[in-house]
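I am writing to request your help with a piece of structural work I have in hand. I set the record out below, with my sincere thanks for your time.
___
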Amino acid sequence: MNLCRNLSLSLAIMMLTLIMLASSAHANEYQTQVGDEIKILLPGEAELNQNYQIDRQGRIILPEVGAVQVVNQTEQQLAETVRLALSAIFRDLTNLQVFINKRQLLISIQGYVNQPGEFTLPANSTVQTALHAASGLRAGAQLDKLQLQRNGETNIFNYKAFLDSGDMSLLPELKPLDVLFIPASPIMGNVEQTFNPLNLADGGDAADDVGAVKVFGEVNRPGSFSYKEGVTLVDLLMRAGGVTRYAGVEQIRVIADNEPTIFNLKGYLDSGNEKLLPNIHAGTTIFVPIQVEEVKSGANTVYIMGEVDKPGAFENKAGTTFMDILANAGGPTRFAESRQIRVIKADGTIKSFDLAGYTEGTVVQEMPTIAAGDAIFVPEKTDMNEKSWLKIAPNRAVRVFGEVVAPGRIEWSAEMNLLELLAHVGGPNPKADTANIEILTPDDNGNITRTQFNLDTFMKEGQPDSALPFIKAGSTIRVSNLPDDPSDNKSQWVRQSSDSSIYVFGQVGAPGRYRFTEELHFLDILAAADGPTGSADLHNIRITHRSDGHARVSQLNLNRYFDTGDESLLPIVKPGDTIFVPEKDKQWLDEPSARTVKVLGAVNRPGRYRFDDTMTLLDVLAEAGGTNSNAYIEKITVVNMSCCADQATSFNLLKFAKTGNYRMLPVLRAGDTVFVPEKSETFFEYFQDSLQVILGIAVLGAL
């Protein structure tokens, strides 16, 4: 009884174990996924017997059946699903075989690869296999930030770390419908261009400027390099191509975490002590300086530098002179400025020495004494072709600019004057205003004195050099320019001061603002303005004199000057004055009444006419077109309004015409009025008209 009970219990345990094993095996069995290749075999059905790939929607497309959902099924479930789908078309499915022919992945590869797109890969494919399917990476891909996108999430991984170590755990596992995106390195820039890996090697391989380690100086390939955990300074120097032959390996500067340190590479190589290596962090800067010679110093050492044949440090013995040290250094070179040799004493004082003047005997100066610790500096001679103001100190230079051939900073010597300085810069050019050279000279207190110099007057009068303005080191000389024409003058009027200008307005060819000097006169400035136009009134040119401290207006009859040639008629004009040439046919309102004569009555052109003292009544009547046919010329009336009391005078033009006696002409002045009556206004004409009316009435009565 007990035996049977034990046997039944053992059988139950065995059955339970078998069921659990079967269930576990079924749970661990491979299930179909997107990309898998399904094989279907049914004898006699050639159209059905082929391979089917599961698409992105998890379906296969069967002939005469259509789409069948088969994803996430075991092979047995797959066979049942396909059998059920085909049973609607085929009756005999006894020999139907359905199985998974190939396990595959359907993934998309995008970004910086040679052939991006969608690929079907074996189920066990890795990231490297996937990149190979896309024909590999393009030059310039950023290897440390590849992206795997799955179900809306992005996983960034370091493919470069895998290439460095071969650790497969660094790569994510691929699954169906994954998107593998390869970004471009930031060093590629925003413009597509041909990428040269050799240039990348020359500039470093860092893609992140913040975390990059920068190595520059005396290395073969300076650049920014990507930081790796545990990297040493020696590793980075090797990645930079090693140091050059000129590298100062004992003074390598390392800046890490904003803390500068000096590293002695030679001491490390001599000892092999790794504790001497500085700590390297992300963002560290390494500078390898150029090698310099060992500094020589001593209690009896003197130094000579600059433009000598062999500059350096020399031992000073008792009795050694300045010439001994200079000769020991090989003497000045041909580029040395021997007039500006400076001796820097050990106590900080500086003494200048003019070697050229000393040897020529033109400078009374003692040779400087040299003691231990002193330094002799022989500067370089200034080269006019080199535009470097650093060659000459401000306290021994003169600035010349403006309209000269070669403006610039010129080294000054007390033996020079303005003429020699202008000659040194090539002299004024053709556009220079040599009558208005400006000189600014500072004094010892920093105050500036402005001097205006007329070189034209100096040259014309043959003045001595003592008449030249005072110039010293620090002075500024400006040679202004003359405008090419009035339009250029107008566009650059701010360059010309009003104190040196004269203004021309009205009826001239080119009115404007003109440069004027004391040597010029009225006709010069009028000719510069292209002369009067055809409509100019030459009898009434007005000049406003503004240079006398108060405004004063004078009038010029230029026509009279041309008739007589009398130079005294021309006014004296000065800079600041104004010349106005009025228009001949201007409106009568513009002409003052006191300068005109009014002609009224029986004339052809009654009106207001300009009048001067040279004219008579006949001139005015002729200007008005003469009397008309109805004029009563025996009684022309002249109303004098310009004298102290108003009065009227009668004039018989007919009698004057018969006698020609000019004494009969009445006095006519500007402001007077001339009236020519008509015949109908006389008593005789009135009596004649009345008589004709009476005779007409008598004739009608007789009829």
